[in-house]
Amino acid sequence: MQYDGQWYKSQVDEATIYSLLGHYDMRAILPILLQAASTARQEGEEVLANGQKTEKITAMISEEKLPETLLSTGTFVSAGLSDAVTAEDMVGCGDMEITFWLDYAGRVVQYCYDAADAYQAIADHVYASVQGQEGYEQAQRIEVEQYEITVTMDEVDTAPAVDIPQEALDGILLEESETQTS
User: Fold this and answer.
1) Which end of the chain is more exposed for a tag (fewer CB within 10 A), N or C?
2) Mean pLDDT of the region 63-91
3) Is 103 helix (H, G, I), strand (E, B) or coil?
4) Is the pTM of this model over 0.85?
5) 155 DSSP assignment
6) Which runs of consecutive H residues, i.e. helices, occur in the chain?
7) Calpha distance 73→34 (Å, rounded)
8) Of 79, 97, 93, which Cα lies nearest the Cα of 125?
9) Which DSSP state fits 137?
10) How remote is the C-alpha of 151 from its chain's centroid?
11) Residue of 85, 79, 84 whose CA lies nearest to 144
12) What is residue 178's predicted lDDT score, i.e. its pLDDT?
């Protein structure tokens, strides 16, 4: 980051990066979703919004596999629930339908699922955990109608390489900066 002509940097470990950005790693996520899916059925051909012709496949992820699948794929990261949610919070969420669109080379180019039932189970778990506490009477139960995730993969592996300028690499560590100012 550059501020007032000076470059600054900070140390970030891989676990932190993955917790923030891992839900964008299709190479890690797709195998998890495909291995969890069962009872697949062909739905026929479909043309995606980008004009790509695909084969639509719908499958189910069982209630047994669903919590770990959703946690492993970072489904709730964008809702700010990445660190707080456990598989136990999703008990009773039921099975979840997932749809894959494959190009004619057999590659998944889009997938979609609605994790509303799992999100509802999480919300119900939290609501139940505050019962009997002061202020509980004013708490309102959250009702999740939809929590749909649709990912379309287009032009995979075509991004140009990014070179980080040397002056950025040589920037002041934020931790060092804080020490210098105190």
Assistant:
1) C
2) 85
3) coil
4) no
5) S
6) 14-21, 26-36, 66-72, 116-129, 166-169, 174-181
7) 12
8) 93
9) G
10) 10
11) 79
12) 53
